[in-house]
Amino acid sequence: MTHDPLTLYKLIILYMLNRVNFPLTKAQISDFILEKEYTNFLTLQQAIAELIDAELITAKSNRNRTHLAITDEGRETLTFFEKRINSSIKEEIDSFFHANELEMRNEVSILANYYKSVSGDYEAHLEAKEKNTTIVEITLSVPDEDTASAICANWQKNNQDIYQYLVGKLF
Length: 171
Description:
The protein is an alpha+beta fold. 57% of the residues lie in helices and 23% in strands.
């Protein structure tokens, strides 16, 4: 194991992001690391911020979620230092993904965001992805922010039904 705990936390984050072929949310990473009591919330946020600053991971915010993804530089760094992660930690991460990967993939594959357009209306942008391929993308223009927010929340809950309805009506 590494002597600097912050370095270990960074390597754990890189290992987690490298282990999947989709971005993870900050919350997903935090849930695992904090549940295992590897570190506290503030230190974890510092590790994530330093990885972003070093361009070893990227962060994209969408409404109340921040999606993290490993960069090529992050993968390269991990190959040099992965042996510093204790094998029992790797096994815990692998078990965590084995048990939760489908749910985690679904959580980051359904995107919903809204913004105020130049016309003064709000646009709700809804998207569903599967393995980095957009399978449906919808933008709805609505008169107010509350409606746009509700559409985004309902997309998170009902996207599969909506997708099946569209496919059924269009094919």
